[in-house]
Amino acid sequence: MVTIAGNGMGDYTFTNLDFDISRFDKIICDSNFKEEASNILKLKYKEAKEYLLENYDKEEILYVVTGSPLFFSAGTIIAKNLPKDRVKIVNNTSSKTYMCEKLFISETEIDVVSLHGRVDFDLQNFLQNKYTFVLCDKFTIARLKSALSFFKAKSITTTIGYKLGFVDEKIEEINLLQFDEKSLDLSQPFVLLIKKEFESKNIISEDVEFETERGMITKKYKRQLTLQNLDLEPNNLLWDIGAGSGSCAIEAYKRYKVKTTLFEKNETRVEFIKHNLTNHYVVNTKLLVGEAQEHFNSLEEIPQRIFVGGGGVEVIKQLPKLYEKLDKKGIMLINAITLKHLNLMLTVLNEASIEYEIHSISLTTYKGKLDLVEPERQLFQIKIKKQEEEN
């Protein structure tokens, strides 16, 4: 039989366990715990999992985890791999509950993300509710600074919970975007509670909501078609090449919660993009300045979606290279508004034996009482789906 119990907040001891632990044949915990006894095994997660799966029906085993075993804990993962009648969970206070009690905040106002041992986090749960609770490791603050690089300091308020439950715990407000990472030992346990100080904008934006150079914006109706045909999914990485005002990437984040990398060579447009990323509170985005094709080889990231809205002839010549960079089952969408560029695109794709489908889209608007026709330029869209590699 396996009992999985949380030690709650505070020092790495068993003092918070309110039951008799002497009845257990083995007690398993990680190496941070200070307790010592002949029946205590200090194991890493993988080792603990293997031991529990091999011995759950042979011994009475207590597995002690930090905080609450029901809150982002390895304990619940292991429990799901054991027969239900051979495992029991004894809960304890989680760092989230502890912070809520200290700051008088309702847990219903909080979403949770984990950056403990992770590079990426779920954008569907980050800065969507009034508060975002972040489980941290020593790299988390640097990671968040990068993810929030286009935010203003006043857009968020951050409270750090450092060494919760220890005698020297700290619960205090910090300036996350300018935090000195050497001011605390970030290898110690800590969490962050980020309060959103802005009102989320409508997920579908009007063209006037973007600062832009005249003509350098993908109009609202074209954005809708483009984002629809990209088949975006949450946490995809989208490359927006020839970003212009950044409107497509920004609305992709707002609507679908994707990560974005924008490529733009025009310095005037770059400044507009920076303002737009800030004004729309875009998280987890990068802006690469210069000729887009000069960045492709240096980027280790693998995009699931690529949108080519500009970039000129040199980018068109790089379409096979972009296809190579695209993730398995990824999608690349290319917009063309001139027959000259369309013909060049098709020539490059055909020579590389890349399969595609093409759509021609036109829209005519009318002013007044349908007495003045205002034709729009025709838009050609080329959609490419990355084929599975053959064995």
Automatic annotation (TrEMBL):
Record Gene3D superfamilies: Vaccinia Virus protein VP39
Keyword Iron appears in the UniProt entry: no
Tetrapyrrole methylase domain mapped to chain residues: 36-176
Top-level lineage group: Bacteria
One Pfam match: TP_methylase
Any GO MF annotation of the entry: protein methyltransferase activity
Record-linked InterPro entries: 4pyrrol_Mease, 4pyrrol_Methylase_sf, Cbl_synth_MTase_CbiT, Cobalamin_biosynth_MTase, SAM-dependent_MTases_sf
Enzyme type, top EC level: transferase
E.C. number(s) listed in UniProt: 2.1.1.196, 2.1.1.289
Gene Ontology terms: biological process: cobalamin biosynthetic process; methylation
Keyword DNA damage tagged: no
Pathway as given in its UniProt record: Cofactor biosynthesis; adenosylcobalamin biosynthesis
Keywords: Cobalamin biosynthesis, Methyltransferase, S-adenosyl-L-methionine, Transferase
Matching PANTHER family: COBALT-PRECORRIN-6B C(15)-METHYLTRANSFERASE (DECARBOXYLATING) (PTHR43182), COBALT-PRECORRIN-7 C(5)-METHYLTRANSFERASE (PTHR43182:SF1)
Name of the featured protein: Cobalt-precorrin-6B (C15)-methyltransferase / cobalt-precorrin-7 (C5)-methyltransferase
Native source organism of the sequence: Halarcobacter bivalviorum
Lineage: Bacteria, Pseudomonadati, Campylobacterota, Epsilonproteobacteria, Campylobacterales
